[in-house]
Amino acid sequence: MSYACSVERLADRLGRPIRDLRISITDRCNFRCVYCMPKEVFGRDYPFLPRAELLTFEEIERLARIFAGLGVEKIRITGGEPLVRRDVETLVAMLARISGLDLTLTTNGALLAQKAQGLKDAGLDRITVSLDSLDDEVFRAMNDVDFPVDRVLAGIDAALAAGLGPVKVNVVVKRGLNEDGVLPLARAFRGTGVVVRFIEYMDVGHTNGWRLDDVVPAREIVAAIDAEHPLEPVESAYRGEVANRWRYRDGSGEIGVIASVTQPFCGDCTRARLSADGHLYTCLFAVRGHDLRALVRGGASDEELTAAIGAVWNARTDRYSELRSAETADLPKVEMSYIGG
Ligand code: SAM
Ligand code: SF4
Ligand code: SF4
User: Fold this and answer.
1) Where does ligand 2 bind, in terms of residues with CB under 6 Å?
2) Which residue has the higher pLDDT, 7 or 185?
3) Given the CA of residue 265, which atom of ligand 3 is nearest to it?
4) Over the stretch 264-289, which tens digit does the pLDDT of each residue have?
């Protein structure tokens, strides 16, 4: 069988193609969000990856091209905080040269005001900014490094001015922490073209002390916004879209909800993740990755890498969120800051 033929048929055991690749380019971050990198765990002595363990930009670009050859259409650069990796603009420029790719990045926005134009100039298509509250006190408590919300808002403005739109804003909603901020966030961005996406707090990793009671179900969020500004559902734009989209009936824009806990969407999950040290994960909740860096540094050819990635994807059966249950609750899991959110 020719290689081209097998690529056309790349699908996992549940018939899902590979369409999206999230590349974590660092496991470090300048925030310590309480639901992601709690300070008590990610403290001064935390063993972050040494530089030599990180994939180089050349290694990332090479793997990205191979993934594109296997059907990946969209790459999201993430982390940790991707904007803390030195010369990230150079990597963006290298990835932007891969034809046919939609290139996006997710950031906490802390360094965005000074970096937005450079990222756009390097060829970034779009950006997602995480912003959990507009209330400065709540925001500072959630990022847990006392970072002011105004500087993230300035980053969003800079991204819009640079033409990195449509900008999306990600909000992780945790019961009792920032749920009161849902309506103010919806109000603030309604009519601006910025799409706010409310994300159910997930049980990723094992350090955030997740409990089901902490999850604010997406339907509750939609109901609260709908009561103030009536909403109607929008058809999803493509297979594998994670957000349920809703538009304001008065035409003033849309919101999204990512209901990974209460309405899992594994059946359409076309996402692969590459960790900062070059391990391929086929699920956000995977226990173990496949070491592509060892193959790359061991001299594997493009064909060998293609075959290795294809074999991993073809064997994939992951659907953690659909199975989330007493049996899966205690599985060891990798941290989101490492695997890439
Ligand atoms: N540092 C960047 C940022 O915060 O945007 C990129 C990496 S971060 C891990 C990617 C996304 O994952 C963020 O939008 C963040 O809010 C989300 N996230 C992190 N931990 C989460 C959790 N336990 N449940 C749901 N979303 C989470
Ligand atoms: Fe850092 Fe993003 Fe995790 Fe917050 S969510 S700690 S900004 S990686
Ligand atoms: Fe995809 Fe795994 Fe999330 Fe299901 S749990 S949607 S398979 S990443």
Assistant:
1) 29, 31-33, 36-37, 79-81, 108, 130, 337
2) 185
3) 6
4) 889 999 999 999 999 999 998 888 99
